[in-house]
């Protein structure tokens, strides 16, 4: 039997550090899509709070408790990250494991916002994107989920198959922002 | 151009896909007359002014929206979740 070699989506592509921004890959953790069945939103939120200490997030919100996170990920969908869902959630929601389906990059540093502004069509300035924000949007032409836990840290999730493109595009933007800063 | 998504807030046009007039929400009954299906599928006004059409927020929350806009001024005056419009009757 061949031994399969486990590798993360962006392995070998990061870290990249240019100017005031650093791109790395987040440690792989469980990611589960949690989508309430019709009419079960309130029951699901109560069950989430009981089992994981976090309610179903409002649109655009990222909630955290210890190493467990719950990110709004679209209409009637949240991503539970860092833990597998309690089995009781299955009474109220469709639960789908997506752990190995996402490339999970971390962009941080004083230039992070300027770098993202080159690709992302939503306002990520502090007033429009406060700590604890989750934004479903685009990075270039790629659909993405952007998480902002706080500070100058942004987490960028794109489909696993997009890892190379995502790192390439972020690297280009990091170079451009650094070049402008050096003028 | 921006569309004010009820879930995501104002978002750039590149996050959306256009479908067509909001008449698509009023699907005829299965046994409706051929004329009703013909009108549903093919007959559209071409207003110079206010119109309502369906947009898909595919690069955002994935909701279908009914967007109110003006074809003469390009003003976008509102957007609602299509299913709320539908269920409001
Ligand atoms: Zn939206």
UniProtKB/TrEMBL annotation, chain A:
InterPro entries: SoxG (IPR007375), TrmE/GcvT-like (IPR027266)
Gene3D superfamilies: Probable tRNA modification gtpase trme, domain 1
UniProt superkingdom: Bacteria
Name of the protein in question: Sarcosine oxidase subunit gamma
Taxonomic lineage: Bacteria, Pseudomonadati, Pseudomonadota, Alphaproteobacteria, Rhodobacterales
UniProtKB/TrEMBL annotation, chain B:
Coiled coil: none
Signal peptide region: none
GO molecular function terms attached to this record: sarcosine oxidase activity
Short name of one Pfam family: SoxD
One record GO biological process: tetrahydrofolate metabolic process
Protein name per Swiss-Prot or TrEMBL: Sarcosine oxidase subunit delta
Species per Swiss-Prot/TrEMBL record: Roseicyclus persicicus
């Amino acid at each position: 039997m061949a031994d399969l070699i486990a590798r993360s989506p962006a392995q070998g592509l990061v870290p990249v550090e240019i100017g005031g921004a650093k791109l790395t890959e987040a440690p792989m953790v469980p990611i589960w899509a949690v989508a309430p069945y019709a009419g079960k939103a309130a029951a699901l939120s109560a069950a989430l709070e009981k089992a994981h200490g976090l309610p179903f997030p409002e649109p655009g919100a990222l909630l955290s408790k210890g190493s467990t996170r719950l990110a709004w990920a679209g209409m009637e969908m949240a991503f539970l990250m860092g833990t597998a869902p309690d089995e009781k959630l299955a009474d109220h929601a469709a639960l789908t494991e997506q752990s190995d389906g996402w490339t999970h990059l971390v962009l941080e540093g004083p230039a992070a916002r300027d770098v993202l502004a080159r690709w992302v069509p939503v306002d990520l300035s502090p007033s429009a994107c406060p700590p604890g924000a989750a934004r479903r949007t685009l990075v270039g032409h790629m659909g993405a989920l952007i998480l902002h836990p706080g500070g100058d840290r942004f987490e960028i999730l794109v489909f696993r198959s997009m890892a190379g493109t995502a790192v390439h595009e972020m690297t280009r933007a990091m170079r451009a922002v650094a070049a402008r800063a050096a003028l | 151009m921006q569309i004010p998504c009820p879930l995501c807030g104002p978002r750039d046009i590149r996050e959306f896909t256009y479908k067509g007039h909001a008449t698509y929400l009023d699907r005829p009954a299965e046994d409706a007359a051929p004329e009703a299906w013909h009108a549903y599928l093919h007959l559209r006004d071409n207003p110079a002014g206010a119109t309502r059409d369906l947009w898909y927020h595919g690069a955002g929350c994935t909701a279908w929206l009914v967007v109110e806009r003006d074809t003469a001024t390009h003003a976008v005056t509102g957007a609602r979740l299509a299913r709320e419009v539908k269920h409001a009757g």
